[in-house]
Specification:
The chain is of the alpha/beta class and about 400 residues long. About 30% of the residues lie in helices and about 25% in strands. The chain has two domains: about 150 residues, VC0802-like (2-Layer Sandwich); about 180 residues, Vaccinia Virus protein VP39 (Rossmann fold, 3-Layer(aba) Sandwich). The strands form two sheets. It has a seven-stranded mixed β-sheet with strand order 2-3-1-4-7-6-5. A seven-stranded mixed β-sheet has the order 10-9-8-11-12-14-13, sandwiched between helices. The longest helix has 20 residues. The C terminus is likely disordered. The structure holds S-adenosylmethionine.
Length: about 400
């Protein structure tokens, strides 16, 4: 099957885990870029990328790239693309542009130039043109313009891949599904130990964790992908990929809790919709009063950042969380994402890792706190006796 370049878009900071996912999928020439990872693959790999990747937002198939020295170049170079290979009069299309170029005041203008070029391409040969439909197009065209470099791509995903299809409702500040999966993979968890989110809100981290542990494809609950409306859609090939056996047995426990009754109800509804009620336990409880559900395990959580709370209450909350972790969670690794520097200052624990991420537009830090049994002194003794791996720092 013919191979071509494929570009997978993701969030800043998730490029390394996306590259790992692609390598595990057998992708060739995997290269990390800014908020994207590219690779070389055939149509089967493009379908798989959409169906399997947990940290992908969009999978793009570039169809042309060129230099533009002025605005008219964008029109004329776009008109040179053999559009009849991708579009017919019966298909609708939409254009979405990402532009960082002095030549174009805004991305709308670039989209308009590309739309005119496609319309004129068809009008000149067939006397008619396909219609534009921004809401539910058959073919989505993506324009990337950086300074004088332009890449035109087909968006094979359709709606963003973070829309997994299991969410019925959301709590106050649900975390994006792609970010949630990326955090779990950045924490290095693939189902080896028991997992908990004690501030689970609508349950996103729990559901993503269960899908990872059981090998459930990220796209299994989606109703459709953009490539299914392409002219060259190979239904038999996609059906083979869709029906392959990905799932694995696991005895790992996944536990979520939240102080809010409504959030827990929402989490349970989403978990049920994902068919994971037997895999995930949910309890309504204040984290400060909760007893650890397992002897050891991993915590990955997204506490409030304080946008709606007063500075003092956020510091109090994080201080209490730090105290509870120290007192009750020895043997656990706790990974916390937050934008609150005040919160982190109050937590009273030294992180062993810090990873910069964004939650929406908010710059955040994703930090790991290793909670050891015993004191710093005992840790040093253990390390000297070679009973502790070197990458694990002692607790202060
Ligand atoms: C940012 S939201 C988490 C959103 C979640 N990741 C999701 O995808 O829906 C923070 C959650 O922390 C919960 N929370 C705040 N204080 C808590 C406490 N002391 N114990 C347990 N949960 C708490 C809130 O009820 C809220 O659901």
């Amino acid at each position: 099957m013919k191979k071509f370049k494929i570009v997978v878009k993701t969030f800043a900071g998730l490029e390394p885990v996306l590259a790992l996912e692609l390598n595990a999928m057998g992708a060739e020439s995997v290269q990390q870029e800014r908020r994207a990872v590219s690779f070389v693959g055939d149509m089967g790999m493009l379908y798989k990328a959409n169906f399997l990747l947990r940290t992908a937002l969009k999978v793009l198939k570039p169809i042309a790239h060129f230099r533009v020295n002025n605005k008219e170049d964008l029109y004329s170079q776009t008109k040179n693309i053999p559009w009849q290979d991708y579009l017919t009069l019966g298909k609708s299309f939409s254009i979405d542009s990402t532009v960082q170029s002095e030549m174009f005041v805004n991305s709308m203008y670039a989209s308009l130039k590309v739309k005119d070029a496609i319309a004129d391409y068809f009008r000149e040969s067939l006397g008619k043109r396909p219609s534009v439909n921004q809401e539910d197009p058959d073919i989505r065209i993506h324009v990337y313009l950086m300074a004088d470099y332009c890449e035109i791509a087909l968006d094979s995903s359709g709606e963003s891949l973070h829309k997994r299809g299991y969410r019925l409702g959301q709590g106050e500040a649900p975390i994006n599904e792609v970010l949630a999966a990326g955090m779990i993979l950045l924490a290095g968890w693939q189902g080896e130990t028991d997992f908990m989110d004690p501030m689970c809100g609508s349950g996103t981290l729990l559901i993503e964790a269960a899908m990872i542990a059981r090998g459930i494809p990220a796209g299994i609950y989606r109703k459709s992908f953009g490539f299914e409306r392409w002219l060259d859609f190979d239904e038999a090939l996609f059906s083979e990929i869709y029906n392959a056996d990905y799932e694995k047995e696991t005895s790992v426990r996944i536990f979520g809790s939240d102080i809010s009754i409504q959030s827990c109800a929402m989490a349970r509804a989403n978990i049920k919709n994902a068919g994971l009620s037997k895999v995930i336990e949910v309890e309504t409880k204040d984290f400060l009063e909760l007893d650890p559900p397992f002897e050891k395990g991993i915590i990955v959580t997204n506490p409030p950042y304080g946008e709606r709370l007063k500075a003092r209450s956020i510091s109090d909350l994080y201080k209490s969380v730090g105290d509870v972790l120290k007192q009750k969670y020895a043997g656990y690794s706790a990974w916390i994402i937050s934008s609150s520097e005040d919160g982190y200052k109050s937590i009273g624990l030294k992180p062993s890792r810090k990873i910069e991420l964004f939650n929406g537009a908010l710059p955040c830090s994703f930090r790991c706190f290793e909670l050891f049994r015993g004191t710093h002194k005992q840790t040093v003794i253990l390390r000297k006796a070679n009973q502790l791996p070197d990458h694990l720092p002692p607790q202060d």
